[in-house]
Amino acid sequence: PLHFSEFEELARNIIYVSATPAEYETELSMGGTVTQLIRPTHIVDPALELHVESNQIDDMVDRVNGAIKRGEKVIITTISKSNAEEMSRYLDRIGISNRYIHSDVETLNRIEILEDLREGRIDVIVGVNLLREGIDLPEVALVVIFDADKQGFLRNVRSITQIAGRGARHKNGKVVLYGNYVTDAIKDAIKENTARRTAQINYNYEHGVLPRSAKKSGNGQST
Q1: HSE (CB half, 13 Å, CA atoms) of 53?
Q2: Would you state the pLDDT for residue 216?
Q3: Closest C-alpha among 125, 143, 184 to residue 46
Q4: Could you tell me which of 155, 176, 169, 175 has the C-alpha nearest to residue 57?
Q5: Mind listing the pLDDT tens digit for each residue in 101-133?
Q6: Is 107 in a helix, a strand, or coil?
Q7: Are 75 and 61 in contact (CB under 8 A)?
Q8: Taking the model in full, what pTM does it have?
Q9: Angle, to 10 degrees, between the axis of helix 157-164 and the axis of helix 184-207?
Q10: Run of H or E including 18
Q11: In the chain, which end has fewer C-beta atoms inside a 10 angstrom radius, N or C?
């Protein structure tokens, strides 16, 4: 066993691989970074759309129902556990099959919930911080982020980018952020998203390729 500082002294040559590198990796790389924008599936990053909160519930329900009719799955993120449970109950009342995931849900139950979504037994997963679930769900096309304009870890630029990435495996991927203010985190996330999408769309056009949704094989491995 080593303290982290001891590990750093031993590890001389390191390659950091991350979709959203932290300041630690960025600083140690000293500008020596390679950006991978083109996926083997040629899927373009999902567009980020910002909407005001005044009619957010009705707007969200319309979008979720539309996704379900197209055979797509949905992830909804909230700012707290109580919000997630309340949203789950609301969706139950209006007939949208769903489950919620947060830190109080046992690990095995979380795996079961994710499989329920993949197998079509539910259409929506509601959660607080779904970044930590190891989620790899190609079936998800719509990602909803409530309270996108709140300050803090759950809504900083890295978190918004990571949450948006849950919809990056589906060719119809879209991310909807609800908030009344354009925070620096939202502004930076949209700026980065626009730059990535532009490069990906141009590449696909220049090479005459079409995006195809990622799929999972029967053993759970991505293809």
Answers
A1: 10
A2: 61
A3: 143
A4: 176
A5: 887 777 678 888 889 998 999 999 998 876 554
A6: helix
A7: no
A8: 0.84
A9: 40
A10: none
A11: N
